[in-house]
Design brief:
271 residues, mainly alpha
Length: 271
C-alpha cells in the first residue's frame, strides 16, 4: 500500500514536469531567436505562436503541448494493475494528473514559472481519458473558429461545451469526479481567458485565419503591357539569390588607339 502511494505521487510529479516543458519558448528561441513571451499576447502557447511566427511554428507547439497532457494521463493507466487501486481511484488519479500537467504548463519550472494557458494540454489530457468527448469539443472549436476567427472565443465555447458533452455521455456521466472535473476545467478555461474577454468586449482581440484564399490579380492585356510592365514584374519576381548569382560584367574603359600615321605626325611636329 505504501509503495502504491509513492508510485502514484511520483506519477503526479512526472505529470507536472511534463506540463512544464515550455515547447513554445524553446522552439521560439532555438529556431527563431526570440522569446515568444515578449511578443504578441506574451503567452507561451499555440495561438500566440500562430499570430507571431505562423503555422510552421505553431503546429509543432500544439503537437508537443497536446502530447504533454495525453502522456501525463496515459502513464496513470499503468496503475490499473495494482490490486490496491480501483476504477474510481484510477479516474481520480487521472484527474489529478490533468491538473498537474496544466499547472506545469501555466507555471513551468523550466521557464521561470511563466507559461501559457494550457488549452492544448487539456485537450490532450481529455483525449487520454475519453476521446469521444474531446472530439466533440474539437468540432465545436473548429466551427466557432471558422465562423468568427477568434481562437480565444472558440476555446471558451468548446470548454463550456465540455461539461455538457460529459453529462450526455453514457460512459462518463455516472462518474461524479469526472463530471465535477469537466465543470472545473470549463471554469478554469474562462478564468485564464479573462484578458481575452476584455479584448473581445473592446473589439481589440486579434483574429486568426487558419486558411485564407490567395488573391490572384488578372493578367494584364495588351502587347505593350505584356512586354513592358509584364517584363518588369518578371524581373522583380526573380529571386534575389539568382540575381546575386549572376556574374557582374566589368566595364572596360576603351583606351584611344594610336595609329602609326598619328605617331609619325607627332614626330614631325616635334622636329
Amino acid at each position: 500500500m505504501i509503495l502504491t502511494y509513492y508510485t502514484a505521487t511520483t506519477m503526479i510529479i512526472i505529470a507536472y514536469l511534463l506540463g512544464s516543458i515550455p515547447s513554445a519558448v524553446w522552439i521560439g528561441k532555438k529556431y527563431y531567436g526570440i522569446d515568444i513571451r515578449e511578443y504578441g499576447s506574451k503567452n507561451a502557447g499555440t495561438t500566440n505562436m500562430l499570430r507571431v511566427l505562423g503555422r510552421r511554428a505553431a503546429l509543432p507547439v500544439f503537437a508537443l503541448d497536446f502530447l504533454k497532457g495525453f502522456v501525463a494521463v496515459t502513464i496513470i493507466e499503468m496503475l490499473k494493475y495494482d490490486v490496491h487501486i480501483g476504477d474510481n481511484d484510477l479516474i481520480n488519479l487521472k484527474i489529478a494528473a490533468v491538473f498537474a500537467a496544466v499547472l506545469g504548463h501555466i507555471f513551468p519550472i523550466f521557464a521561470g514559472f511563466r507559461g501559457g494557458k494550457g488549452v492544448a494540454t487539456r485537450v490532450g489530457a481529455v483525449t487520454g481519458i475519453y476521446p469521444p468527448v474531446a472530439l466533440l469539443c474539437f468540432g465545436v472549436w473548429f466551427v466557432i473558429l471558422m465562423i468568427f476567427h477568434y481562437v480565444s472565443l472558440a476555446s471558451m465555447v468548446a470548454g463550456c461545451c465540455f461539461p455538457l458533452f460529459t453529462l450526455i455521455s453514457p460512459k462518463v456521466n455516472e462518474s461524479i469526479p469526472f463530471v465535477v472535473f469537466s465543470f472545473v476545467i470549463a471554469i478554469l478555461l474562462i478564468y485564464t481567458h479573462r484578458k481575452n474577454i476584455e479584448r473581445l468586449k473592446n473589439r481589440t482581440e486579434s483574429k486568426t485565419y487558419i486558411w485564407r484564399p490567395r488573391r490572384v490579380s488578372p493578367p494584364a492585356a495588351g502587347p505593350q503591357q505584356h512586354g513592358g510592365a509584364g517584363a518588369a514584374k518578371e524581373a522583380k519576381a526573380e529571386p534575389k539569390a539568382a540575381q546575386e548569382a549572376k556574374p557582374k560584367k566589368k566595364e572596360m574603359k576603351a583606351e584611344p588607339e594610336t595609329t602609326p600615321s598619328a605617331e609619325s605626325g607627332k614626330e614631325e611636329t616635334k622636329a
